[in-house]
Specification:
It is built from eleven helices and nine strands. The protein is α/β, with parallel strands linked by helices. The chain has one domain: Alpha/Beta hydrolase fold, catalytic domain (Rossmann fold).
């Protein structure tokens, strides 16, 4: 048996052991990937609730310059976790966790009003299959990035938040590159790891029926919450409950 073959076997064995450990140990780490056209600040209330319940929460501030960049940033954060992690994605963040979820540190996945793609699908392709009722998208002058018209943002993205909170989200939104929205996902992690999905029934950014269809296709444990696309901010307690439930189920 040559050395190269032995090295390959050793690497495969090590990866399998790490993956098994991630699924067998108690899940106390929550890694959240925020969506496009928003940043991680809206997750503060949900984070505080989860931390009071004993979880260690980290929010990935991905650049949204490209899909590959965002997956890489998520993996960097996952590599910092001490023990297995539950990976949570909102909106475009669902695209990211579908790819990054293959990390051996990830025990399971939670999709929050998120895209949940299958192999070869892109955000633009999924969104156009069942258009949402809102989303006044604008292009930057160079034509490379997208953003929501700040005037329309509260109604389209966060209609159930107080006006001042919705206005802040509009001001802090992260512009998304067209490249990120058109990138196609590889083999989805939800095919090999347990997943949960939250459907925001009043979502105007992603069609709620599309959220349901994607969750059913993936066999996800689905919860419906009456809320806008910003369900993580308007209903932080309910979102935290789903995340806690997922972490506890993975810890059994």
């Amino acid at each position: 048996m040559n050395r190269r073959y032995v090295a390959i076997l050793a690497l495969a064995f090590t990866t399998s052991v790490i993956a098994f450990a991630a699924q067998a140990a108690d899940v106390k780490n929550i890694v959240i990937v925020h969506g496009a056209l928003a940043d991680g600040s809206g997750w503060r209330k949900a984070t505080e609730i989860l931390e009071k319940r004993g979880f260690n929460v980290t929010i990935v501030q991905e650049p949204i310059t490209s899909f590959a960049d965002d997956v890489a940033m998520t993996n960097r954060v996952l590599d910092l976790q001490d023990g297995p992690a539950l990976l949570v994605g909102h909106s475009y963040g669902g695209m990211v966790i579908t790819e990054a979820g293959h990390s051996p540190h990830v025990a399971g996945l939670v999709y929050v009003a998120a895209f949940q793609p299958d192999k070869g699908e892109s955000l633009l392709g999924l969104a156009s299959s069942k258009p949402a009722s809102g989303m006044n998208i604008r292009e930057t002058k160079d034509g490379k990035y997208l953003y929501i018209d700040p005037v329309a943002f509260p109604n389209d993205f966060a209609a159930d938040l107080p006006k001042d909170e919705a206005a802040f989200l509009a001001k802090s939104q992260v512009f998304a590159s067209k490249e990120a929205f058109s990138a196609k996902v590889g083999e989805p992690a939800w095919k090999v790891k347990k997943s949960w999905s939250i459907v925001a029934t009043d979502d105007r950014s992603i069609n709620p029926d599309l959220e349901r269809d994607m969750a059913k296709r993936a066999g996800s444990d689905m919860t419906e919450i009456k809320a806008s696309h910003a369900v993580f901010a308007s209903q932080p307690e309910k979102v935290a409950e789903v995340i806690e439930k997922a972490a506890k189920e993975l810890s059994r």
